Amino acid sequence: MTNQALFPDLDGASVFITGGGSGIGAALVEGFVAQGARVAFGDIRDSRGFANDLGARFANAPLFLECDITDTEALRRSLAEAGAAHGPVTVLVNNAANDDRHTLDAVTPEYWDRMMAVNLKAYFFACQAAAPGMAAAGRGAIVNFSSISYIMGNAGYPVYTAANAAITGMTRSLARELGPQGVRVNAVAPGWVLTEKQRELWATPEGLADHLSRQCLPEHLMPEDLVGPVLFLASQTSRMITGQCIAVDGGVVVSG
């Protein structure tokens, strides 16, 4: 990972990250650990090896909690376990997602429910579980991962884009609701980040070249490129930023 700016208030902070075992989530776990944070992360896959590897490099080894975020009670238990180990969670990063490709005619009610459970429902109930502890502490930062796919109006995964549009709307409403308790809620909308999963399943030379031609910055995004923006939004450096959706995409979409 490239050198990141240091955010002193994150040293010792209790952080919970969903989907932290691979891809962007793994980069985020390492980024927060490097800041000195007390990190717990959930993943449906066994990520003890990754946690142990970081523990060999840093004194503040992250806590891995095996968790299916579509199981709301399991998600709540994981957040409670993180709080018991590290103190009340004051930084929540909702990162886990599933951008499975699909078409309108192929979607069944069962598929809709599964996709929404991962891409939206889990975000809401993680926020719900973390908010009381943040309010009691008088501070907190929630960072929800959205996607520029819905801003672009991309075809090929309409349930996924619907969920990400909803994440942005939820972020703005929760920022208003939780602001009086000192809790900030923001979203990050990545562009096409070349995780191992993306390379294996969907990244063709033609597709990559076409997407790169839309970027202002002609360089593909890597998981590490999301770490700095999330650290910034989690830190008191951004203490007066809330209710925002920040695109980290090399300049594909614009706002304002």
UniProtKB/TrEMBL annotation:
CDD domains: SDR_c. It holds the Pfam family adh_short_C2. Gene3D superfamilies: NAD(P)-binding Rossmann-like Domain. This is SDR family NAD(P)-dependent oxidoreductase. It is an enzyme of class 1 (oxidoreductase). One of its GO terms (molecular function) is oxidoreductase activity. Its EC number is 1.1.1.-. Belongs to the short-chain dehydrogenases/reductases (SDR) family. The lineage of its organism: Bacteria, Pseudomonadati, Pseudomonadota, Alphaproteobacteria, Rhodobacterales. InterPro entries: KR_dom, NAD(P)-bd_dom_sf, SDR_fam. It comes from the Bacteria. Keywords: Oxidoreductase. Residues 13-192 form the Ketoreductase domain.
